[in-house]
Design goal:
The protein is of the alpha+beta class and about 270 residues long. The protein has nine helices and six strands, in the order ββαβαβββααααααα. The strands form two sheets. Strands 3-4-6-5 form a four-stranded mixed β-sheet, with helices on both faces. It has a two-stranded antiparallel sheet with strand order 1-2.
């Protein structure tokens, strides 16, 4: 795959395969790339995205303030939980939350907590609880370090299981291209194409995160039902052809995970 020719720029050495665990779920994941390196490059990529003439950042509006308020509550709740459960500052990200004018029904969070919410999704979120569902899910991808895991999986597959260590820190060409490949950087960013397993995990963590922040996780079911309705007639692919779970599968799994999330919800 041409996408991985950039690895030739690294002074590569063989290292032991390492694994990490996702907070709360405890799932072991392949870890061949330093997530901190991706976070450093994410800062630059996020700045480029915001400065792009095609990107219209909304600042002075009630919706923009809602995005920042809901995001800040979720981030604060996550930080408190991580600090009190022995994770230290590992997940103490420097979050940023921006509302982007776009008809796309979309939102994303880059490594390190760089978040964008598109105006096109606001009619589906409707209220703060719906917005918390979306933002909790997207932030969960960052907390679970799904981007680094995805890249590790792609690297392992490309090199037949060989372990390649990405250069840590600095503005390396390699980590820039990692983000380029994962997020489709170039003008507007495209949402990262996560696997179904990662999407389901982000749903589970997102429920917990929104509950920690004081939002009733039961509202997540209502949001995903509205999302399913919004997609009707849009030609969504069958589940086995998609990296995302089908709407019915997603909603059913969320309902199964609600008892866990409710334990973190304080009215």
């Amino acid at each position: 795959m041409k996408a991985f020719k950039f690895l030739a720029v690294f002074a590569v050495s063989a290292v032991l395969v390492s694994c990490s665990q996702v907070p709360l779920t405890g799932r072991s994941q392949l870890s061949l790339v330093n997530d901190e390196a991706l976070q450093q490059e994410a800062v630059s990529a996020y700045r480029d995205f915001l400065r792009d003439p095609k990107t219209k950042v909304i600042t002075n509006s009630a919706d923009a303030q809602r995005v920042k308020n809901v995001g800040s509550k979720i981030a604060s709740a996550i930080n408190r939980y991580m600090q009190s459960n022995g994770y230290g500052d590992k997940y103490n990200y420097k979050y940023e939350f921006n509302l982007i004018e776009s008809k796309d029904i979309n939102a994303w969070c880059m490594p390190g907590g760089k978040v964008a919410v598109y105006t096109g999704i606001l009619p589906v979120t409707r209220d703060d609880a719906g917005l918390a569902t979306v933002m909790g899910h997207e932030i969960a991808h960052a907390i679970a370090q799904h981007a680094a895991e995805r890249y590790s999986q792609m690297t392992a597959a490309q090199f037949g299981g060989g372990v390649i260590g990405a250069a840590a820190g600095g503005r390396s060409e390699g980590t820039q291209q990692v983000l380029g490949q994962l997020y489709g950087i170039g003008g507007q960013l495209a949402i990262l194409n996560y696997s179904r397993k990662q999407e389901t995990e982000a749903d589970r963590l997102g429920l917990v995160f929104m509950a920690m922040a004081g939002y009733n996780p039961d509202n997540a079911v209502l949001f995903w039902q509205r999302m399913a309705a919004a997609k009707q007639g849009g030609g969504a692919p069958p589940e086995f052809l998609s990296t995302h779970p089908s709407d019915a599968t997603r909603i059913a799994q969320i309902k199964k995970n609600l008892p866990e999330a409710r334990q973190y919800y304080k009215k």
